[in-house]
């Protein structure tokens, strides 16, 4: 038994258009989405199916907006795709109730359409997610590399997290620029917040120190914890004549001494005892 | 305790994930802080090697139990060009990627057991094990 494709399509579209309330009710039930969202989608689909050239631009626009909003709200991509796919289940019940061969054949065509739309939401969803991640990476890159002034002529870079090539580049540029801007001759690179120092991180650090030296500044690396020191020695990395300190405080006092600043202890109370001769 | 985990190494972000997973498992089986840092650093070196030299690969992280002490085993596999001269690759200061040339030789010292299988055109497999003390 063959059914002309055109007739099948017409039949399923008719069914889709005529059973709005039933479809929406079932669709809401299966997908668990808000009825308003689905009503908008239904209206857009209705317009698209009713138009001569089958223009789905509006439907896609609506779906894209929906996926992006859901990506931001932290829904899973499957949730979003399920919302679209569940229309099939709702429509299938309508087609089954109709029972005609046209309706069933038309349903196959319609479900292909829904599949395409579902995949489209998936793609938009991942694109939106990717964009969020990219934005965050850029923000992190900017946020996580402050160069702070500790004293006249002494600047510090507290490094936190993973040091990769991109971040080291940013750190190095910022540090060198700050050295020029503030006319500092001492820089402290603090790696207390760096979880692991492998050869790549070490190489990045060494390059930064050498670059700062070329500009006439002296670098101290501080925040080397015992386990990091252990690992660096075992790996065989040599820091050469670069000054390293265990804590930022040590590095600061070293830099202060080098730049000729003397720190006086807290003023002690002086008690003078004078004996008076009677 | 936990089933072996296989992780892909395709981007710099994956190297970070490998490091984090290694650290959490190492802490879980009770490695000391120094040993944790050592195995994490070795994992970082080897994962980056797979990424830089072979364009990517994968790692199998496995907790070894049943022995006298628990251990952590990491198997890095890639389908890259392979290493023609293993002796040379393990020489300190030898690097084909402009690095310090300490990654492979240093990793060997950071772990308790180190096994490197490679041939030109056949990829590379590095197995490292760290035992709890």
What does this molecule look like?
The complex is a heterodimer of chains A (278) and B (133). Chain A is of the alpha/beta class and 278 residues long. Chain A has 2 domains: 5-139, Globin-like, CATH 1.10.490; 148-258, Transcription Regulator spoIIAA (2-Layer Sandwich). Chain A is built from 10 helices and 5 strands; from the N terminus they run H-H-H-H-H-H-E-E-H-E-H-E-H-E-H. Chain A has helices spanning 5-18, 20-31, 35-50, 57-73, 77-98, 101-143, 165-182, 199-214, 226-235, 248-258, and strands at residues 148-151, 154-160, 186-193, 218-222, 243-245. In chain A, strands 1-2-3-4-5 form a 5-stranded mixed β-sheet, sandwiched between helices. In chain A, strand 2, helix 7 and strand 3 (186-193) form a beta-alpha-beta unit. Chain A is elongated and about 125 Å long. The N and C termini of chain A lie far apart (137 Å). The mean pLDDT of chain A is 84. Chain B has 133 residues and is of the alpha+beta class. Chain B has one domain (5-131): Heat Shock Protein 90 (2-Layer Sandwich). A 5-stranded antiparallel β-sheet of chain B has the order 1-2-3-5-4, with helices on one face. In chain B, strand 4 (113-118) and strand 5 (124-131) form a beta hairpin. In chain B, helix 2 runs antiparallel to helix 4. Chain B is globular and about 35 Å long. The chains are: A alpha/beta (278), B alpha+beta (133). The A-B interface holds A 162, 164, 195-200, 202-203, 226-228, 230-231, 234-237 and B 12, 16, 19, 23, 33-34, 36-38, 40-41, 44-45, 48, 92, 99-100, 102-103, 105-107, 109-110. Chain A: It holds the Pfam family RsbRD_N. Chain A: InterPro entries: Bact_StressResp_Reg, RsbRD_N_dom, STAS_dom, STAS_dom_sf.
């Amino acid at each position: 038994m063959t059914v002309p494709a055109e007739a099948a399509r017409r039949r399923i579209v008719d069914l889709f258009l005529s059973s709005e309330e039933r479809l929406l009710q079932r669709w809401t039930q299966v997908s668990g989405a808000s009825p308003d969202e689905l009503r908008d989608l239904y209206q857009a689909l209705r317009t698209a199916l009713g138009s001569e050239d089958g223009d789905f631009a509006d439907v896609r626009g609506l779906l894209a907006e929906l996926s992006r909003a859901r990506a931001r709200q932290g829904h899973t991509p499957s949730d979003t795709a399920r919302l679209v796919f569940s229309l099939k289940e709702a429509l299938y019940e309508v087609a089954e109730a109709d029972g005609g061969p046209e309706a069933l054949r038309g349903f196959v065509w319609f479900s292909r359409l829904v599949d395409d739309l579902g995949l489209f939401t998936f793609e938009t969803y991942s694109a939106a997610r990717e964009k969020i991640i990219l934005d965050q990476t850029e923000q992190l890159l900017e946020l996580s590399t402050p160069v702070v002034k500790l004293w006249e002529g002494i600047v510090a870079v507290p490094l936190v997290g993973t040091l990769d090539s991109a971040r080291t580049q940013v750190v190095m540029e910022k540090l060198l620029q700050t050295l020029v801007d503030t006319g500092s001759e001492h820089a402290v690179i603090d790696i207390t917040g760096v979880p692991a120092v492998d050869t790549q991180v070490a190489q990045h650090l060494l390059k930064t120190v050498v670059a700062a030296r070329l500009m006439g500044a002296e670098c101290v690396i501080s925040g080397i914890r015992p386990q990091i020191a252990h690992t660096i020695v075992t790996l065989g990395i040599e820091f050469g004549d670069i000054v390293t300190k265990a804590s930022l405080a040590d590095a600061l006092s070293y830099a202060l001494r080098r730049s000729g600043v003397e720190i006086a202890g807290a003023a002690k109370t002086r008690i003078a005892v004078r004996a008076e001769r009677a | 305790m936990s089933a072996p985990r296989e992780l892909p190494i395709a981007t710099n972000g994956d190297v970070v994930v490998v490091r984090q997973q290694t650290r959490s498992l190492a802490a879980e089986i009770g490695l000391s802080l120094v040993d944790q840092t050592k195995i994490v650093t070795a994992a970082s070196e080897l994962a980056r090697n797979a990424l830089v030299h072979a364009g990517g690969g994968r790692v199998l992280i496995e907790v070894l139990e049943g022995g006298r002490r628990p251990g952590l085993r990491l198997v890095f596999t890639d389908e890259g060009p392979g290493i023609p001269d293993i002796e040379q690759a393990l020489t300190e200061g030898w690097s084909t990627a402009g690095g310090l040339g300490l990654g492979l030789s240093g990793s060997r010292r950071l772990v308790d057991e180190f096994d490197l299988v490679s041939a030109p055109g056949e990829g590379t497999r590095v197995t490292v094990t760290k035992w709890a003390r």
